[in-house]
Amino acid sequence: MIVAVTEEEWRKKIFDYVSPKANINTDLDNKFSFIGFVERDVSGKDNVMGGVLFSDYDGHNIFIHLALDTPKVCQRRFIKMVFLYCFIQLKCSRITALCRNGYKRNERLLKGVGFVKEGVCRHTMKIGNEFVDAAIYGMLKQECKWI
Length: 147
Known about the structure:
Layout: E1 2-5, H1 11-21, E2 32-40, E3 46-55, E4 61-68, H2 76-89, E5 94-100, H3 104-113, E6 116-127, E7 130-140
Parallel strand pairs: 4-5
Antiparallel strand pairs: 1-2, 2-3, 3-4, 5-7, 6-7
C-alpha cells in the first residue's frame, strides 16, 4: 500500500530521492516542504516510490519538483493532496513547474493534471554536465480541477 508522508523524519530521504531525478543541482538549505509517497510492505519495510518538493514560495507562487518511480503513485487522492496544499493551505495563486523541454513523459503528466505550457527557457536546466532547454509549465488556482 502506498501512503503519503510529510513528517520531518522523511525530509532528507525525500529530498535525496527527488533532487537527482528532478535535476535539482543546488542545496535548498531545508527551505522546502515536501510530500513523499512510500510503499509499506507487509514486513514493515518502507520504500520511497515518489515525492514532490515545494520550493521558492513567495505567497503568490510556488515551484514544484516531482519524481516518481511508478505510475501507481499517480492516484487521484495524491494528486488532489498536492493541489490542496498549494492552493488552499498555502493560498498560492499559481504553481510553476519546469521539466526538460521535449521530455514527453513529464510533459504528458503535467498537461494531464492541468498545467499549461507557458514557454521554453533556453539552456537553463543542468542535466549532468550539459545545460538543456527547460519547458515552463504553470497552473493558476482558477484553472485547477482538483480543488
